[in-house]
Amino acid sequence: MKQTVYITRKLPNEIVEKLSRRLHVRMWEEEGKPVPREILLKEVENVNGLICLLTDTIDEEVITRAKHLQIISNVAVGYNNIDVKAATKKGIIVTNTPGVLTETTADLTFTLLMAAARGVTAASDALRGGQWGAWSLMEFTGQDIFGATLGIIGLGRIGEALVKRAQGFNMNVLYYNRTRKYDKERELGITYAEQTELLKRSDFVCLMLPYSPEVHHLIGKEELSLMKRNAILINTARGGLVDEEALYHALKSGEIWGAGLDVFEQEPVPVNHQLLTLTNVVTLPHIGSASLNTRMKMAHLAADNIVRVLNGDTPLTEVRL
Ligand code: DGY
């Protein structure tokens, strides 16, 4: 009898067909809406594999319900939506999709950095709103990118890919990482700085680290107060890294100059969220990895991990604690 995989969101046909060659596939078909919790809890009971997205909370309750589950395959590099400890305890393998989204996410991070520095969305909105008067010298002025200092917090794959983009703009790159990476300093020509030092010296601060409860609100009132007045904060990692209330006040009062946010503590971010009222913030709906090619690669990798594990092989990209 074929083993069964449950997919928590409609995936492209190519992926479903690939899985269906070997497995019985069940899928939540409703476009744009995460599977309701009670359905997930029911579906997980008897399946052998689960393909989920970052919008699905795979916590201890879900894991406990699963009687035959061998693998949880997350279609994302971040896996803070999964209780990996509980899964591992039960012998369930957890996989993610690192590598395939590195360059695309670094592209978007740099896009946000540039858009926030030059106030692209506010200027565009002004034009469309009929507020473009005669060209004037100091109107719509932003911050320079070329030659500025970039501070990267979290030097993983995507952080490194960001360095390469920054080098094209002659930026001076500082980084902070839990473990100092001497080899990368030599290879990439970047400088290590403690987080406080990095916050004080950077014109742009990019958060490139995974979220976990230990780094909840890593950037709060105190950290923002250390940043330069011309500084711009970029977050394409996870919303929980930033205290949004503190960020709002820092942006509103001019304590920092701007922000570029692709992620929020609550997603979708409510349209009446106070951060969306500010013109010095560029906001995006969590699209860091959203190129056609990359999203297909992520889906294929997630499917390949499922097929391999249910076939008794080792997964390609296992999450290990
Ligand atoms: C991830 O993979 O964790 C991103 O947030 C979505 O691509």
Quick rundown:
The chain has 321 residues and is an alpha/beta fold. It contains twelve helices and twelve strands. The longest helix is centred in the C-terminal third of the chain and has 19 residues.
| Helix run count | 12
The CATH first-level class of the largest domain comes to Alpha Beta
Average pLDDT: 98
Percent helix range = 25-40%
| Major beta-sheet overview | 7 strands, parallel
Give the tally of structural domains.
2
CATH superfamily of the largest domain: NAD(P)-binding Rossmann-like Domain
As residue ranges, the low-confidence spans are: none
* Global structural class: alpha/beta
**DSSP, total strands:** 12
Bound molecules: (2R)-2,3-dihydroxypropanoic acid
